[in-house]
């Protein structure tokens, strides 16, 4: 063959990098060094002597830790190879992690934070030396207050679930402050609200009541009213729910909660579809939170660090966690939490690099841009939904014929019934095309689920490619099901056996444990 | 701003494509998608936000301009610690966690995200070697959370309420832990003696209703606990669990708590390859022995090794996923969410680079510099070390004898570009040195404090004079 | 199967990332934007009016350039995918690019240069504002002077060949200054010296005489003496030569050149094996150069920027190119070239980021470290040679039974005669294992050549893996030659057709040309 | 330093492995490998180098400390150009060229280095669109080299010696080009008129012995040539080649030289996505039409599109490799070596990000700000623009009328943190503005110059006074 080049086939001929790297411990060579530590100065040694030899009995480690011994380049190479074996959002059309709001984390923000002016700041420095950091925290909180409509916002928490914990901790403190701590022992949530709402409430000592939707998949107001009582501490709901359905009666939900003296907590982790459209406070919520690492464009870091933003009404403001950044004229200072504050959730001011990223992200977009984010995320979602629903065997349970906000929980139930191929298998096979998805949180209320959330970051061409891949895999499920069942084929590793992972006798959570449990395998 | 609004971050703001997509879904405008949002909840106006900086160069100038107002520890002489520490971060660590593939990934499967699984499993394993423990979690938020969870685990396992807090703990950490567990557990303080735990006091307070003894080592003031085994034995004798909160930075030279009876070891990984980030880069580890009673109480994800269809291929997966709130909502253990995976990868790379010898060298430098700084400051008239324990990295001085207050020392030395430490009470100052603090740096601090003490003494003498000869004044 | 994991097979089961990306122009969507430019201020516009409309006749571009229109993330994604399809030295055991000295370019150096304190410096700023840059240039030149033994060193040139050009330009100027410009019209080099010596001499107007080695592969002193004459301007030789053979009579070569009034120019691009062992000046050379991007650990940048270091004797110092950094007490300033200087070879002070990297590299190693670099590079090379020569069909022509310095030019001639598989085919097949090599410069004086240079950067385990792969491919060449012939199989792309690349009617050097020549293929 | 010397960059310094390898090759010591290096050439002592900083933290502190002595243009108000320009570099550009795979690769084959081939072929293609030319090289070192080669190509193609240099050229560039081609070509200056080429003067000097006419646009002072087609016609009439040296930054708005008769277009890509790097980041492009007579004279590598065994796969390879010195040593065209590939990748990413609209917007901002700055400075009494041409980014002012010297202006304004431009002769100052120079910045410069002019006038008046009344002095 020679030029011209033939047209590309319908589906990308993808193969993920495969380096077949061993476990790092197997790369060790005695005596190699990865990085050297500065030497103890002679003057210091002369003064203090041999500090290890003079440790109290038993305090000096007897056998050195069996860390690998490797030259610097080999460590680097190992991890670079592993990195190529990972499908970051920058690399793929990452619409398959629905509820996770995988959006573009702009590279300029990475560059902006990469300065000792931020990375080498200690949180207890003289505030006069930290005016830049403090001003950015303050400004970001104020912008999020405007975006949520809440009175005050704190960026102290380190993730969405931590923010949910802060929400329930504030609610608990609030009721206790009002003498109702003992009475209000229940928290109500919905099955399509994120599980951390239920779980954090439980961890805070509450009994959890979980409501299921009505037949159309809408949150069930009547069920809520039945569940509410003077025992209710709060409702904790996500909206739009994981289904991408916006609760049209959200104001009535909040009012009903308030009517029994309960508070209303809004999980807005993912507010991507409603930025500039509607606000938590306008629906009457007392507390809410954003996942800054979702809605506000900070990278997900392979699973964190994230950042939570807790927004509260004036009544709840005294309960906010952590130290607060306060403006005095054109200076900024740090104020420790007041007497009613729930105190620190974590150290200092939260995940500061994320706060600066989020600040830059909002500043790059402004009001018009945030609205364009929401509108485009929603347009993309409804466009993708149209494409997915054209695939035989795929469906979008609930709210039939209606639009969704920013995501949809779909189902392969039809396809599964026809072919026996599960949603999980389809997702794995999709990875052979450089795409992937996750199914959803358990329990699988939607059978054979998969949840797609295209956000604003992907072009139409990319959404089309994604839908084409799912259509192709669905076709394979019917025509060549073995190909799907034995997937992946073009991936770093092949079908993996998860049978040992639930067996305490056999699981291997560290190399240490593995060597102990499988002494003959050492050197594998 | 251009009309129509097209933004580099939002490809489908391009008008032609937008129109095409609307047509494809049969919508006249995006308004239709919001049919479920009631009119009275609609904002109906533009958000009141600052003018955007849509051109990257304008954004960069603005944000860099704000950050330029910071004066970092690289431009000050800093002896600040108390939870966040200035350690050297090898460049390879930053390179690895800066890779797009790790930085922007999230929660893919063990196939397309094999690299993440392996990197985090290796983190678990490298920490396991350092701590001499068989099970380590994918990091939670920070040492505060790790400790709260460790104690909560102990509570669930024992069904008891009492926790003996036998070390000096950072106030913010104590506040977090207390609020976190207070529905389930009661914390009782057993005051330390000469910096470390009062073994007799602990033994006295132990009983069949004690869920856990909580030791911090190094303590709030950097004191290293040296009687762990005795405490462990006492706790175990009544069926209590020994929870040790620690900073792993010293275990290249120090005996890990697991070898002295600790059941749960927890703490923060910021010292292992993370920059200070104004206190914004923490990760929490929880380590236990390979005992399902403990493992099944852990809320975090735990990655495990697995085989694949291809012999010799290293695969991974979630161990005992049913523990988690992802699997069972409120029936899971506490909760799990986006926490600190990237920092875990960083800490793993750091440990791989350091190796056994690097961690040993580091531990030794820290011990040596700490001891040196203690002597240098302790030798100043009127300055007193608060205890006689072995210290790692931090120690406290009492400045009362020099007629000074801790905040007075801070104010005075800041004027010389020195952050001398963190005040803890009126006269106590907690001073921190790391491998980045050279002998010269310490000498400079000692000289500055000496100068201050002398000035204070002179002033005191002057005042004394004044007081001594009131006649003069009247003259 | 379940735990434990079986041992790994003998050879890495590698697959390079394959994204099957189209050419970037095919990713264009009208209206998308990748980055926005700052707006012209209203005050500026009011003052100057429409600057495009008022351009002189014909100066305003009529049709916009047909650059692609793409959102920022899609541009990023495209190039990230391409990057994964590239085998950087950080990723592989890069010993196969012999003569290129692929060594570890430490990451800390990348971090150190990544500061506006270097990247945002303008070369014509007040020297008082550039003391850091100037001091580093000065210090690096002084350290290289010590390493080479030469009187003065200039880091002005942008690569090894540019440095060779500077060498011959200085030699030319020197002879002209001595009134011998017209007489000395010849330059002598050897066939195992880098081709740029011959080519630059030719470009400078010289006739080039190329000497072949003696039967043992050693540079032929007798041949040199025959070639030298009063017409000789210079000898320009690499040593060790591309064969890894050190010319033991190098001093005699220099003396013989000097005896006829010629100068001696030493191509020390790759001094990796002799750092701290022996120096150019000690062998009597008048000029020499280093490839800083080879010997001194700066990254190769996919083919540059490099940096050349020109070292000269006192007699040649006045001829050095470019501006020079001069120390006055503890201050540094810039001095333009004197009257005999050959002037600028390129802008300003050369590739400054590389100079800073090289400075950091030398400072991380010191004298003991540089010697360890040389000794280890040589140990690695002789170890690898042993492993390679154990492979049936491989040989190392010349200097049989003797050691080599830092590299070896091997031959697959035996294997080729046996199997018909060429060295080029073997190198391509090696890429299926994540390894690769290049053959060598034409002409292939060594038949079926391949050139390996392990440098100091690779561990024994890595060298073993490399040798194992070549042994495996050699085995395949005998047992399953089709596998080799049709390689690559595990690569980003497959066997490529190079038949159009020499045909002016058919070659396509740009997308523009491609579309014009193959109008039906647009959209391919 | 530890004994034995083990270094993180050199794994086989680990003593056990070293011994094992020596044994494997049957050598008692590394000395054996140096048998061919005569004893009298051996250094026989340690190199005299500064004490190394083997611990990464010590190295980092030292180098950062040196660099901290630089005060970059981000901390000054800079109007410096003359070959190196302060343009905004989009972050994505830095991200891509910072990728290990691109940064550390070198010269692999089109298989394992497919990404590099595609990125550089795309660079060629993107430049081709901007320049409206079909052939662009893999970058050579810089615009100096590109121009030297372009003229050398013209010399080889025509077999003639004369080159008419019809524009104002940077002195360093002229020096390089002259020395580069002087064996083959004679450069003759045709002085420009009012900033741009003297078409009549060129026509007068043209003849059958002219190899090339060399135009620079923008010129040394930023003047944009606007009669290229006439010059091209005149050159072509006598069989001469029109070589246009240029900066591609303006071709989003300006007509590319290829559309006005240029045969070879060459220059520097520093403006397309490269930082200033103290002048250390340049790349040279040479663009020609798809005419083998021209293409076969190019020394650089040229990548070409190719098919593979798999339909639809995009492959690459070297076009006409036999041209090069890699293939034929001195029989190749000039030479080729390690040049500026990474910068080429950067420029490609930059053009892809900018797109047609971005390049247009950029060109417009540059023209507008340049014109604004010309007016702002030209309006100051005693300050004169040196010509009436259209300028892009740079222009020259003559400060003689204000009684000032160019270096005097520079000295005075540096004291205010302003780099006002580059002196060129006693009274000429070349001022540069880019998209990073805001209206406010220009106004600040104008105000500073105005102040200086006023002070100079006042001083002159005072001197005049003094001179006028010598009597006073004597008094
Ligand atoms: C709606 C919702 N709430 C809460 C969370 C939990 O956030 P995080 O993962 O940061 O703990 C998520 C993220 O998955 C979410 O989508
Ligand atoms: C010995 C020798 N000389 C000269 C060169 C040319 O250097 P560069 O590629 O930097 O032009 C090289 C690099 O290949 C070389 O190995």
TrEMBL record, chains A, C:
Gene3D superfamilies (UniProt xref): 6.20.440.10, Aspartate Aminotransferase, domain 1, Type I PLP-dependent aspartate aminotransferase-like (Major domain)
Function, as annotated: The glycine cleavage system catalyzes the degradation of glycine. The P protein binds the alpha-amino group of glycine through its pyridoxal phosphate cofactor; CO(2) is released and the remaining methylamine moiety is then transferred to the lipoamide cofactor of the H protein.
One example GO MF annotation: transaminase activity
Any one Pfam family match given in the protein's UniProt record, by short name: Aminotran_5
Protein name: glycine dehydrogenase (aminomethyl-transferring)
Domain Aminotransferase class V: 139-303
The entry's keywords: Aminotransferase, Oxidoreductase, Pyridoxal phosphate, Transferase
TrEMBL record, chains B, D:
Entry EC no(s): 1.4.4.2
GO terms (BP aspect): nucleoside metabolic process
SUPFAM superfamilies from the UniProt entry: PLP-dependent transferases
Major enzyme class: oxidoreductase
Annotated ranges, domain Glycine cleavage system P-protein N-terminal: 9-446
This protein's UniProt keywords: Oxidoreductase
Domain of life: Bacteria
MF terms (GO), sorted A to Z: glycine dehydrogenase (decarboxylating) activity
Keyword Phosphoprotein: no
InterPro entries: GcvPA (IPR023010), GDC-P_N (IPR049315), PyrdxlP-dep_Trfase (IPR015424), PyrdxlP-dep_Trfase_major (IPR015421), PyrdxlP-dep_Trfase_small (IPR015422)
Pfam families per record: GDC-P (PF02347)
Protein name: Aminomethyl-transferring glycine dehydrogenase subunit GcvPA
Species assigned in the record: Agromyces luteolus
